[in-house]
Amino acid sequence: MKDLILYIAKALVDNPDQVEVKEVAGEKSTILELKVADGDRGKIIGKEGRIIKAIRIIINSASAKLDKRTTVEIVE
Fold first, then answer.
1. What pLDDT score does 58 carry?
2. Which pLDDT tens digit goes with each residue over 20-37?
3. Separation of alpha carbons 59 and 2, rounded Å
4. What DSSP string describes 14-32?
5. How many CA atoms lie within 13 Å of 43's alpha carbon, on the beta-carbon side?
6. 6/11 Cα distance (integer angstroms)
7. Residue 14: what pLDDT?
8. In Å, how far from its chain's centre is CA 76?
Protein backbone atom coordinates (compact mmCIF):
# COMPACT_ATOMS: atom_id res chain seq x y z
CA MET A 1 0.00 0.00 0.00
CA LYS A 2 2.81 2.36 0.87
CA ASP A 3 4.36 2.00 -2.58
CA LEU A 4 1.02 2.56 -4.30
CA ILE A 5 0.32 5.82 -2.50
CA LEU A 6 3.91 6.98 -3.07
CA TYR A 7 3.53 6.37 -6.80
CA ILE A 8 0.20 8.22 -7.00
CA ALA A 9 1.32 11.17 -4.87
CA LYS A 10 4.64 11.65 -6.69
CA ALA A 11 2.79 11.79 -10.02
CA LEU A 12 0.53 14.61 -8.76
CA VAL A 13 2.92 17.02 -7.07
CA ASP A 14 5.57 19.48 -8.28
CA ASN A 15 8.16 18.34 -5.70
CA PRO A 16 8.11 14.52 -5.78
CA ASP A 17 11.31 14.30 -3.75
CA GLN A 18 9.49 15.78 -0.72
CA VAL A 19 6.74 13.15 -0.67
CA GLU A 20 6.90 10.90 2.39
CA VAL A 21 4.60 8.11 3.50
CA LYS A 22 4.69 6.71 7.01
CA GLU A 23 2.87 3.45 7.66
CA VAL A 24 1.41 2.83 11.11
CA ALA A 25 0.24 -0.78 11.22
CA GLY A 26 -2.27 -2.20 13.62
CA GLU A 27 -3.93 -5.58 13.98
CA LYS A 28 -6.76 -5.08 11.51
CA SER A 29 -6.12 -1.55 10.26
CA THR A 30 -3.29 0.48 8.84
CA ILE A 31 -2.87 4.25 8.78
CA LEU A 32 -0.87 5.77 5.94
CA GLU A 33 0.35 9.26 6.80
CA LEU A 34 1.08 11.24 3.63
CA LYS A 35 3.39 14.23 3.91
CA VAL A 36 4.01 16.60 0.98
CA ALA A 37 5.48 20.08 0.54
CA ASP A 38 3.27 22.97 1.65
CA GLY A 39 2.73 24.16 -1.92
CA ASP A 40 1.66 20.70 -3.05
CA ARG A 41 -0.93 20.05 -0.37
CA GLY A 42 -3.68 21.62 -2.48
CA LYS A 43 -2.81 19.39 -5.42
CA ILE A 44 -3.20 16.29 -3.28
CA ILE A 45 -6.51 17.48 -1.80
CA GLY A 46 -7.99 18.78 -5.04
CA LYS A 47 -11.12 20.81 -5.57
CA GLU A 48 -13.64 19.99 -2.85
CA GLY A 49 -11.38 17.11 -1.78
CA ARG A 50 -12.01 15.07 -4.91
CA ILE A 51 -8.44 13.89 -5.45
CA ILE A 52 -7.86 12.72 -1.88
CA LYS A 53 -11.24 10.98 -1.94
CA ALA A 54 -10.20 9.15 -5.11
CA ILE A 55 -6.87 8.17 -3.55
CA ARG A 56 -8.67 6.85 -0.47
CA ILE A 57 -11.06 4.81 -2.63
CA ILE A 58 -8.16 3.23 -4.52
CA ILE A 59 -6.28 2.40 -1.32
CA ASN A 60 -9.41 1.03 0.38
CA SER A 61 -10.19 -1.15 -2.64
CA ALA A 62 -6.67 -2.53 -2.75
CA SER A 63 -6.61 -3.19 0.99
CA ALA A 64 -10.01 -4.92 0.92
CA LYS A 65 -8.40 -7.77 -0.99
CA LEU A 66 -6.01 -8.21 1.94
CA ASP A 67 -8.88 -8.17 4.49
CA LYS A 68 -7.49 -5.05 6.10
CA ARG A 69 -8.76 -1.54 6.61
CA THR A 70 -6.52 1.29 5.48
CA THR A 71 -6.88 4.99 6.22
CA VAL A 72 -5.02 7.73 4.37
CA GLU A 73 -4.28 10.94 6.28
CA ILE A 74 -2.46 14.07 5.15
CA VAL A 75 -0.07 15.34 7.82
CA GLU A 76 2.01 18.48 8.06
1. 93
2. 999 998 887 899 999 999
3. 9
4. S-GGG-EEEEEE-SSEEEE
5. 16
6. 9
7. 94
8. 13
